[in-house]
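Incident log entry.

Two folding requests arrived from the same account within the same minute. Monitoring flagged them as a possible duplicate submission, but the sequences differ. Recording both here for audit purposes.

Request one:
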Amino acid sequence: MRKLLLPALVVTFFSGASGYGEPQNNNSDMPFWRERALFTLTNACRLDPQGFRETYIGSYSILLPANYGVVPPLYWHAGLNQAARIHASDMATDCGLSHNSCDGTAYSTRTCHYYDCSIPGVWTGENIAYGNSDPVRTMRQWIMDADRNGIPAPDKEPRGARWKSGDGHRKNIMNAQYFDIGTGYAYGKPQNYSNAQPFWVQDFGTATSQFSGYALPAASHIFPGSNKIRFLVCYYDDSRKKPQQAGIVIDGEVFKLHLHLGSEAQGTYLYETDESFRCRSYHFVFSDGDGTAWRYPEAGQLRTYGEGNCSQSYTGVVFKHKHSNAQARRTLISHMTRHANGTLRCFVACSCVGPPAIRLIAADGKVHDVVSTLRYRTAWEALIETAGVAPGVYFLQVRHASQSAAQQIIID
């Protein structure tokens, strides 16, 4: 696990070692959007089960506080992601809905092949579903655990004739003994099905996650309807301190996040806007109650899969702008130094014809204009008179023509 330390480059490329929130094993499609969205919704439910019910499920007498209270978030596990994806693909192309693999292998044998179950007290659990292509509807399907008439199983309901799984899917999602998760999705026509169907898998594990303590356990986007796109990120602080700053950077533009579910210290934040007709890149940046900066994903950018014709879930390039001459150019902020006279000095490399517009944006949205004074070949020097700026966490935003980039900085 790596905490974001400042200064950091705005442009990075995906390398072999994966940080938290980045695709695993050099596979940019692991997880892909639907899997990441389902993972994020799962944690949103765990951090505020009653709020999640009212927002995404409906006003039913389930997920009651006496039965299902707030539990810590789950962390992504690459092995469980692989196990879940393989099983979703197996169901979609062969035997259809089944916990056991289509060759008869028990689900626990399959999951433990990708997850170390040799540790005493470590075991796995699994949810499966089919029929919905939307992650929100699939979460609703599991949380409801409904009978044939659409009536949800009561909390803690055992298996039976009416509710065959009881509330077992709900119980898995809210089980405080789980720390790791991997989700899988596949679409296909099983051998004995008349039509192709989407298949989903959640695989859970009880081992303590290697990423435990990372303040941003999950993030993604969903499509709530009405041509809107909703960006979600889960924040969790064991010490129950609310973050000093919560933001999202979309194509270099900084936007403030708002609390959606749960508490400020342990909840889900959102930014909602109109859908676009193209792919957009985004990442989340927070500053916790102690001033430590966090980023999701740790490097690279998530992509707005499903928006317009966008079919990408992740890109290793944090910011990249294509000029009219079709040559890829990059904007970055680097070489930051602090002087005793209260001036913060940094260099902005952007291959700009003229001086870029540089702004310092506070957590409350207040904007401080910064004057770029000198040019050094391809870099512009920006001077911030910190004596006139209150201590705190800020975004340093750079704009020139259609280029835009942003970096989080702390002024103390």
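Request two (distinct sequence, not a duplicate):
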Amino acid sequence: MKTMKNYLVLAVIACLLTGCTVDNPSVPVQPESEEQDDPSERGGAETFDVNVECWKYLNKKWVKDKVSLKFEVSDTKNFEVGLKQMQGTGGNYVQVDIPEKVKYNKRDYKVTSILPRAFKKSKELDGIFIPASVRKIGVEAFLDCYSMTSVRFEFGAYLHTIGADAFGYCTALQGIDIPGSVEVVQGFKGCAGLKEVTINGSREIGEEAFENCINLETLILNDGTRYIRSGAFRYCGMTTVDIPSSVWEINIWAFDCCYDLTKAIIHGSPTIFSGAFPNNTELIYK
């Protein structure tokens, strides 16, 4: 071993002096030491089922019942889980209150996320209550839940992320009040039944966030929003819109094809890209 080390030292010195390179397949290059993933320790994340109370539509009336929710352990150190799936509806419409905490292995686990596609195409889901503990709603979490009429967020929500198409094409959804804790609002494309949207100071309204919400009549933008991205409200039905002074940019096509939008009241002096509004929209600066 000592002889080998001496050989390597001499070889490196020789290369530095002559400008040559060492390419000796008989001497393997040793990578920098780093912690390797042990396949024997990998395995899938733990999942478990919990029966929670719900309202279920039985015999033409709403009654208290239970539904099964599957959770996945996401953080074993902080005892956190994500909601993975709903099951056991029996084909009946249900209104579900997601619990803030669930019991697993005699410990309380906090529900901090709704995982991607957790409720996708759940045709029985009529309404959902999301507790303040949930910080992230995954991609397509409620995509195509065409029977869902309401989404309620607990006061004081810590929700930070709404994934792409999270609520896409929930055509029965009529209104949404988005917590100000959400950084980028997106994921409501094609919610044709949506009539009223309130955004409580989220920094950004993402691309195509509410595109094709053709019946959206009332848009309330509270102070705090900085950017309205391309196509955010394309093909929506508002007649007027009030832009708060906090807005810095309104991107191209933000309100494109909003044919009934006759008036936009602009507070402050945001950068408005060409084509952001239809040609017939009057911009009134205040």
